[in-house]
Amino acid sequence: MFLELRHKVGLHRMTGRVAECPIDEMNRPRGARDAQLRIPPTEPEVATLFTGWGGELATCRKFTPTARNHTASKLMSQVGLRVSEACKLDLADIKWDLGRFGKLHVRHGKGPRGSGPRERMVPLINGADGTLRWFIEDVWGQFDDDHTRPGAPLFPSERKNADGSSRRVGDDALRGGLKEAAKAHLPGWGERLTPHVLRHFCASQLYENGLDLLAIRGGFGTFLDRYDDAIRPRPADPGRGRLDRRDRAGREAAGRADPMRWNLRLTAANKGIWKASELQRSLAEHGLVISAGKMSRLWSAQPVSLKLEDLDVICVVLGCEIGDLLIPEPDKVRRPGEETGQQTAAASGPAPAVVPRRRDGRSLPPM
């Protein structure tokens, strides 16, 4: 039935045969639900939705709940969270010191066949780390709650408990926010764009990047860890398997030194480009099409790898030299016989915590 709904035309073109379910309606099992066709929106459509929704934050009537709904929905499209799982997350469930980008500890995940909640760790890939950092640092503190309180929710509600602490947001609020944003910025989808469709979008993006369909069906937990390693392989450890290998802190300190600083955002600002979406459109006009996730990393973080031909296009669009984008930092290069105390302390210590700030005003999310 799935082949008939989703791939009937393609199979007919390939084989000349029409795919039809061999079981007619009279002989199907009683109580079996009809299959539903869920084709998620394309990557440009999702980018259009969140770009328009993010720009709306500058003029909307209520900034904090709109920013919360935007962040939760974007997180569903980036790492495949369910809406019920997002509502039950705590601030303490974000483990910034795990993995390359940090991980989410989903404590109330859905178990198969009603077997109860299942825990899993979800890496913050596809720019989800930048999205959460912006929300926690610039938005969370405006809900007027104490981030040191045990059990403080990641996505608070405007309603308060009897002791003055914030309640958790309900799934109806997140669904309603996504529905209104889809009507405004992606009218072609209207009410069809639900949190579950965003989860399907995340799965389709993982599949297009090489993750097996059975792995996706099995869950977004352990398989996302493998996907994290696949898209950004870690450098080989020269001391692996040797008895005289260095301690882990020394190895990580040596691998974290970046002798070049990526200066794209400041260079673009000097040319009058203030948004990642503007630069993304200019690059596309010159033949360089970049996905929203990769553009977000180029704009707000240090890129892991970059092709030389892509670097040439960026220089042409911004009218700059390579030296304007890549600024050398020789002080960060570790020389033979030297031991950098700051690097060793940074490697041995915990990762810097992302703490909500007490602030007013509005800021726009990372693109």
Describe this structure in words.
There is one protein chain. The chain contains 17 helices and seven strands. The chain has 367 residues and is mainly α. The strands form three sheets. Strands 1-2-3 form a three-stranded antiparallel β-sheet. A two-stranded antiparallel sheet has the order 4-5. Strand 4 and strand 5 (166-168) form a beta hairpin. Helix 3 runs antiparallel to helix 4, helix 3 (43-56) crosses helix 7 (171-185) and helix 4 (63-79) packs across helix 8 (195-208). The longest helix has 17 residues, at 63-79. Residues 212-219, 221-257 and 340-348 have low confidence and may be disordered.
Write a short abstract of this structure.
This protein has 17 helices and seven strands.
Set out the fold topology:
Elements: H1 2-6, H2 8-15, H3 43-56, H4 63-79, H5 83-87, E1 94-95, E2 103-109, E3 118-123, H6 128-139, E4 156-160, E5 166-168, H7 171-185, H8 195-208, H9 213-218, H10 222-231, H11 248-256, E6 260-262, H12 264-270, H13 276-285, H14 292-300, H15 308-318, H16 322-325, E7 326-328, H17 341-348
Antiparallel strand pairs: 1-2, 2-3, 4-5, 6-7
Helix pairs in contact: 3-4, 3-7, 4-6, 4-7, 4-8, 11-17
H and E string = HHHHHEEEHEEHHHHHEHHHHHEH
Rough outline: globular
Find the count of extended strands (DSSP E, 2+ residues): 7
Instruction: Give a short account of the largest sheet.
Output: 3 strands, antiparallel
Spans of at least 5 consecutive residues whose pLDDT stays below 50 are: 212-219, 221-257, 340-348
N/C terminus separation = 39 Å
Count up the helices. 17
